[in-house]
Amino acid sequence: MASWSGSVVDGLDAFVLEYSPRTGEVSTSALAQCWNMAFERCSPVRQFASYRGQTNFPGWWWMATTGDHVGHESWLERDHLIVLDADPDVIGVAAQPFWIHWRDEDGRLRRHAPDFFARTRDGGAVVIDVRADERIAARDAEAFEATGRACAAVGWSYRRVGALDAVLSANLRWLSGYRHPRCLRSGLAAELLAVFAEPTKLLAGASVVGEPIVVLPTLFHLLWSQRLVIDLSSAILGPSTLVSSR
Q1: InterPro entries given for it (predicted)?
Q2: For the chain, what is the mean pLDDT?
Q3: Of 83, 59, 65, which Cα lies nearest the Cα of 169?
C-alpha cells in the first residue's frame, strides 16, 4: 500500500488520493492533479470482507446502467446502489473508488475510502458515504467532514446517506427485478406509453394493452427506467397505483 507524508495545509492541497485505475495497479496523486480521473472506472481500493458469522451482508449488484457489477458491504449500501442504478442522470458508479489522505488538526495522518463514486450525465461527480445516523462515531464524522471539504475543493457533490425511506426502498427493490433489458418488449412499450399518456391505474392500463402476465414485465421496466412514472414514496406499488408518462 502506498503511503503519504503530506503536511497540514488548507484547501485543495490538503488532500492526496490513492486509487487503482486497473486491478493490481496503485497510483497516488494530489487531488489537484487527479480530480478529473475517471474514478467511476477504477477498481476498489480495498476488499469486501466476507467471513462466517459477520453481521453485515456484502455482495455484488449488477448495474443495469453500465452492465457491470459493483460491490457493496451491506444491504443498506445495496439499497443506495439501487437508487443510483435507477437514476437516469447517473452513467457510472464505482465502489471504494479511492483512499483520501489528509492530516487532522493534530497533524495525524488520516485516510478514508468513500463507499461510492458516481458520474453524472453532465460530467459531474458525486461521492457518497453510506452510514446509518446512529452508527456515526466522532472519528467517522471527522472523516466525512474532511471528505466533504475535499469534494467541495474540486466541485464534486458529497452525500452522507443513511437509511432509505421504507416505502421508496420497497418499491425500488421490486422494480429492480425488471431492470434487465430482456424485460422490455418494444411493441408493448409503445402501447403502454400511449395508454398512460394520462394518469391511469396500473392494472387497468396494463389490461388495456393485453394479458397482464405478459404486459407487466415491460410496464415495470418502463417504471424502473422512468419512462413511465409513479409516486415511489407515498405507497407500496399496487394495482391501483396511478401511472403516467412524463
Answers
A1: TnsA-like, TnsA_N
A2: 92
A3: 83
Closest CA to 11 of 153, 114, 111, 129: 153
Name the DSSP class of 196.
Answer: T
Q: What angle do CA 209, 199, 164 make, to 5 degrees?
A: 105
Residue (of 90, 117, 110, 92) closest to 34 by Cα position = 117
Q: Using DSSP bridges, classify how beta strands 27-30 and 69-72 pair: parallel, antiparallel or unpaired.
A: unpaired
Q: How far is CA 245 from CA 42, 75, 205, 206, 211, in A?
A: 36, 31, 12, 14, 21
Q: Is the distance from CB of 243 to CB of 229 less than 8 angstroms?
A: yes
Distance CA 78, CA 130 (A): 10
Going by DSSP bridges, is the β-strand pair 59-62/16-19 parallel, antiparallel, or unpaired? unpaired
| Helices and strands (DSSP H and E) totals, the chain | 7, 13
Residue 137: its pLDDT value, please?
A: 94
**CATH 3.40.1350.10, domain 11-161, yes or no:** yes
DSSP state of 51: -
Cell numbers that stand for 63 in this block: 448495474
Q: What residue ranges do the domains of the chain occupy?
A: 11-161, 166-245
Tens-digit pLDDT profile for residues 6-58: 433 456 778 999 999 977 789 999 999 999 999 999 999 988 777 777 777 89
Between CA 184 and CA 224 the distance in angstroms is 11
* pTM score: 0.90
DSSP 90-127: EEEEEES-EEEEEE-TTS-EEEE--SEEEEETTS-EEE
